[in-house]
Amino acid sequence: MRSVPVRAWAYIGCVALCAALCAGPALTSAGTPWGAVALLAVLYAGCEQITRCRFLGQRAPRGMVAFFPVLLAGAFLLPPAAAALVAVPGAVFARVERSPATPRRIWRGAQLAVACAAAATVHVALGGRELLAAGTPPTPDFPAALAPATAAALAFALVVAALDGGILATAERVPLRTAWRGLFPRSLTPVVVHGFAGLMMAVLWRSPYGPPAALLVLLPMYLSCWVFAQYHRERAAHQATIRALVQAVDIKDEYTRGHSERVGEASVLIARELGMADERVEVLRFAGILHDVGKLGVPTRLLRKDGPLTPEERRIIELHPEYGHEMVRGISFLGEARAAILHHHERLDGSGYPYGLAGRQIPEFARVVAVADAFDAMTSTRSYSRGRPVADALTELKRCAGRQFDPQMVRALVRALDRHGWRPAVTADSPEGEGGRHRRNVPPPRGPRSPVAGDRAR
Amino acid sequence: MSAKVAATKVRAPLAVRAVHLVTALLVLGSLAHVLWSGLADRGVALAFGALVAVGELARGGDPAQEREPAPLGAAGALAYALLGENAGHPTMHSALQVVAVTSAAFLVGCVPQVALGRAPLPDHLARRVLSTAFAAVCFQPLYNSGKLTDLLGPGPAYALWLVVLLALTALCDAVLAAALVRARTRWPFGPLLRDELRAMRGIGSAVGATGVVLALAVAVAGLWALPVFCLPLLLTQLSFSRYAAVRTTYRQTITSLARATEIAGYTPQGHARRVAALSRAVGRDLGLTAADLVVLEYAALMHDIGQLSLVDPVPDGATAVLPATEQRRIALLGGAVVRQTGVPADVAVVVELQADPYREQPLTARIVRTANAYDEMARKEGPGGPLAALERLRLGTGHDHQPEVVESLARVLSRGGLAPVGG
Q: What transmembrane ranges does the database entry give (chain A) (predicted)?
């Protein structure tokens, strides 16, 4: 458990005091609708708990947006002090992902209570209460009721973002300006969406159909929260794909792994230097990591051969770009990376393989990966040769630029290394030689009949 | 309803055509009725029609793969079927008008899809029209006659009644969907219905709840409720394509890994696909859930990955001839790769346990093991292969293969029809 800095405790204390001041009047006032407060509080607590259940076959993702529609409905229905109370039980009993739990719970409850009170105050001040049930029989006045509701939702988002920035600054020691940057704009869309849903809840709650009808609003809102959380999963799925392919190559020939990841790093350096857009940089990283995935198709005996290769064996090894392309061509998010995998052994003068493309015919990504591949091959230590110093390797690359490599890419690499140096952050690289390595990612032995991890038929 | 199901069981494709015919007649009849007698509450009808059409227009993905490709359109249709009031004033539209407006809007919304060459599936259209008609017939006549208001009044009981109707509609839709699949494929009806009902818990329940909320909200606040409440749902529907993209990525990764062993020459061409198809068929026959069938398919596609660790390929990829410890070692390495792909951990477990005696395996792993052994042996044995392979599997039921799984495999093979992978 990490210790919480004193100033963070002080900040949490201040916010909790504010929350108590906001909620205090509810306890003394005679007009507090305790029934509605209790019902909404239970509802909110239940919604927070529900994120532990499975839905659509999967557990709700971490960091899923909390159930703001209920809180906002409370802010539209209740006096500010009572609205502040709604958030407290749910926030205090919600699941906490990371320790320390106690300050996090207090913080969450206090923050949401203050935000709810602020939203309710804004709503009351703009006359939202009268617009929700105007005339006889009382009907909501649309579209006039939208304005105070939107303003209240914005106030809610603003308070949450401001307080979040504060806690980042005190607990994580992030500078205030950095902490606040982007917090509010990012929360705008979800909060407006939740504001509309909360408004619908409030309208139905006040209607003759009563709270049961308001409850129904939550089901579609849960779905919408869940789908928003998918944004995070897409990236995770891409990385899982890369990991799986790397692991597949790894169980065949663990030698290439560190090399692949370093080629990915070097490709990214070149791409940044060329000013590529972030998405393309990411795809180029994938291209670098996967450039040798076609080695899966080459017999393991050949990959491990120590002595010189016969022409026939060389021909078989030179098939690996085509094998690699054949493997990944169905994976659509790899995009341009697929061409890079096919063409990374082409040479600028047309003497490369598999197609003997020349000059600009070679896809840009392939020209980048070719330089990164050669650079890492020269600088890393292999069983048959010691790694050369970076400067030597760059001289060699420059010598071959124009014939084998694209001079533009070589220059970009030189500039990037001048600026950043070459410290590849490769986690999977193992420093030892070929033999006696321990396998990674093999599940632990399950009881006496499972084989020893790392035992390898050689 | 049970009579309809019984009928579908006997006459398979005919029943599907009958459902389509009924749908077409219903749509044409209701359109004729509306043209003849005019639209009641024109503004309300146009607003809901627009909602359904927008919902269809905004749908993404392949209708064949998505369970509910247009949640907003479905919710709008349901809401119109259950709509009784507009801002406190009773509406007067009939059940036939509901069918006419929603199906016309549905067809309008489909125009761009058709232009792109993706025709709406007749089954999908039939389900949508028939379930909307069911809800409307249950609600509108009773409401329009004034009996419902006398009985329940505008209060919580009215809202609960809508929820009951929603549940009935969902049940009707599930039965219809399961019956259609049953008629086409002859898979057992029970598990199909169970899967349909399970699927309702997720998207289906949210769509239904949206329909009820829209109906009630329009009753209270008028047509303004539609944009206010549908904007969030429209955003949801648009970001649904992200969810589809995640699943596509998983599927593509798995296919590519399944090809790896073939490209590397460890397994014969098409082996993984055949084992996946066989496993799914056996899983269907044994009444596994939809989730388990997905696990089966993924595990079967990737079951040979561990062989990449072999320095020399086993002839024909027939690992059954290797010593048991070696088989387990390969299985564990394969499981380690599968764990990286991000598919459910159950899949990795199946791959890891594929070489264990069947009593120590989950059912899914038993099925993959038996299907794999069958495919390896049947190919080797030549013309009489399938029978000889089944015979050898039966001999292995003491230790390696579960007798029930082998018998199920025999049933599947005798039917001759293998389900296409991914179906």
A: 66-94, 106-126, 146-171, 183-205, 211-229
B80 and B152 in a single domain? The answer is yes
Same domain, B268 and B226: no
Same domain, B287 and B237: no
Query: What string of pLDDT tens digits covers the 423 residues of chain B?
Result: 344 444 444 444 788 889 999 999 999 999 999 999 888 888 899 999 999 998 888 775 554 445 555 678 888 999 999 998 888 888 888 999 999 999 999 888 888 877 777 666 778 888 889 999 999 999 998 888 888 878 877 788 888 999 999 999 999 999 998 988 888 877 788 888 888 888 777 677 878 888 998 999 998 888 888 888 887 777 766 666 666 777 788 888 888 888 888 888 888 888 898 999 999 999 988 988 888 898 999 999 988 888 888 877 777 666 767 788 888 888 888 888 888 887 888 888 998 888 888 888 889 999 999 999 888 888 776 666 788 888 888 888 888 888 999 999 998 888 764 443 333
Identify whether B339 is part of a domain: yes
Q: CA dist B337 to A31, B70, B249, B304, Å?
A: 63, 36, 16, 11
B209 reaches A (C-beta below 8 A): yes
CB-nearest to A209 from B216, B264, B306 is B216
In a domain, B258, yes or no: no
What angle, rounded to 10 degrees, do the helices at A278-290 and A230-252 form? 20
Cα A113 from Cα A117, distance rounded (Å): 6
A53 in contact with B at a CB cutoff of 8 Å?
Answer: no
Residue contact A227–B243, C-beta within 8 A: yes
Q: What is the pTM assigned to this prediction?
A: 0.71
Q: Tell me the nearest-neighbour CA distance from B34 into chain A, angstroms.
A: 31
Residues lower than pLDDT 50 in chain A = 1, 54-64, 426-458
* Domain range for B409: 264-415
Domain chopping of chain A, boundaries: 6-228, 233-420
Picking from A217, A223, A453, the nearest residue to B203 by CB comes out as A223
Inter-chain CB proximity A244 and B341 less than 8 Å:
yes
CA distance B61 to B72: 14
- Domain assignment present for B251: no
Residue A54 host element (H or E): strand A54-55
Please tell me the CATH superfamily of domain A233-420, with its number: Hypothetical protein af1432 (1.10.3210.10)
B259 vs A contacts (CB less than 8 Å): 326-327, 330
Is A212 at the interface with chain B, CB within 8 A? Answer: yes
Mutation to test the A interface, candidates B205, B226, B249, most A Cβ within 10 Å: B249
Number of structural domains chain B divides into: 2
Per-residue pLDDT at A132:
82
Give the pLDDT confidence of B366-397 residue by residue, as tens digits.
999 999 988 888 877 666 678 888 888 888 88
Would you say residue B259 lies in a domain? no
A204 at interface of B, judged by CB pairs closer than 8 A: yes
Contact yes or no for B200/B170 (Cβ under 8 A): yes
